[in-house]
Amino acid sequence: MPQKRKATLTPDEARALHREALVIDTQQPPIVSGAVFTPRMKQAIEQAIRQGVTARDELGPRMAALAARELMTSPNAQKQYLGLWNRSGVTIACGTFSGAHKYTGAYERANELIGRAYGIVEALGGPVEVVRTAADIERVHRERKHGILIDFQNTTPIGDDLDRIQHFYNLGVRMVQLTYNLRNLVGDGCTEANPSGLSYFGREVVRRLNETKILVDVSHCSEPVGWDALKFSTAPVIVSHSASKAVCYHDRGKTDELAKAVADRGGYFGVVVIAGFISDKAEVPLDAFADHVEHLVDVCGIDHVGVGTDKMGPGPGTESMVEYPESMPRHSAGTFDWAGFRLKEHRLLGDNVLRGYENLGDWPNLTVALAKRGFNEEELRKILGLNYLRVFREVCG
Questions:
Q1: How far apart are CA 219 and CA 254, in angstroms?
Q2: Whether 174 contacts 151, CB under 8 Å
Q3: 3-state percent helix, strand, coil for the chain, nearest multiple of 5
Q4: How far is residue 220 from each of residues 102, 241, 249, 254, 298, measured CA to CA in Å?
Q5: 302: exposed, middle or buried (Cβ count in 10 Å: 0-12, 13-18, 19+)
Q6: What is the residue extent of each domain of the chain?
């Protein structure tokens, strides 16, 4: 049985460490499209409802586009955005620029979202950058700025054209999740009906990602895809954001066996803070998050675990700061849910709440929770950012 750790830092000391350390959130999906909510965006939601829009998945792309315009043109929106970054104490956020999309339009949408990110960074005039190398990450930290690392949570933008991998690398993509929850051309996701491993095409995608120096991420992948990725990848494989099935079972979690294999190959495992993924209780304390980190450190070793919150704002899932009406469903009636989550079964309803993490600005509370568990300064620095930086440097340069 692992030895019980004893706290060596007070909460105030942990917060001071957090402010000074390199902090990398290895999955912060809406770091551009969902990080602000302005009066103009609120008015747009009200207008859309009057026009007959009935679901978030229909309204979401409009809000993402409007959020980008606000960040490029509105000083108040920029102040709100930078204030959230500053409260978080996060140095680098890995932002998703392709997620649970079907193939139709995925390539075009990914290009559009990446273009918006560069436009926002330029409009902000310096405090936020897109990072591409380990040296970029270290420089941003030294200069007390913030960095966005562009990632994909699906391979749908690649379609069946392997040359697109180089195209997206040129645009700054440095981390690619092989599947989302459901099946694609590469393999199966973790909530697919009868999950299997990588396809022959998927093996070639892994080879090209290795060749192009892009991290292979298996967070939402089926267990067989995870094992196949480890088999066929010549570089370390990561789990940017997941949890431990041994601590609390969820389809989105990983077994101890896979987690240890990822670590044994030099990889990394980031722990989420989504209440429904880390606990089967309705009221979830930050201790539940710390339980997963502590367990995975015992399984993988202190050099291979970090934090990928997968959460921006309030709500049971990865919600942005956008405040949708509580009565508005996530998905349009009669449409297929490409996200692949069965909301009740996957504990993604409104009554699953993580106390202590309302939005990105509460990130320092995670460091305090880990310090209370007895992780010392050296261990915390590794968990907060150095572990991910190590594997990022090895794979991406």
A1: 8
A2: yes
A3: 45, 10, 45
A4: 16, 8, 14, 9, 22
A5: middle
A6: 11-325+337-396
Q: Which residue in 4, 62, 3 sits closest to 33, CA to CA?
A: 62
What is the torsion angle, in degrees rounded to the nearest 10, for the CA atoms of residue 207, residue 29, residue 262 and residue 289?
-170
Tell me the helices (H) and strands (E) count for the chain, helix number first. Answer: 15, 11
In this prediction the pTM is 0.96
Closest to 291 in 3D by CA, of 356, 247, 347: 247
Q: Which residue has the higher pLDDT, 324 or 70?
A: 70
**Domain 11-325+337-396 CATH class label:** alpha beta
Q: What is the mean pLDDT of the chain?
A: 94
274 neighbors 316 (Cβ within 8 angstroms): yes
- Radius of gyration, alpha carbons of the chain: 19
What is the Cα–Cα distance from 122 to 128, expressed in whole angstroms?
9
Per-residue model confidence as pLDDT tens digits over 281-320: 888 999 999 999 999 999 999 999 999 999 988 777 788 8
Residue appearing with tokens 């050296």:
378
Q: Is 166's pLDDT higher than 70?
A: yes
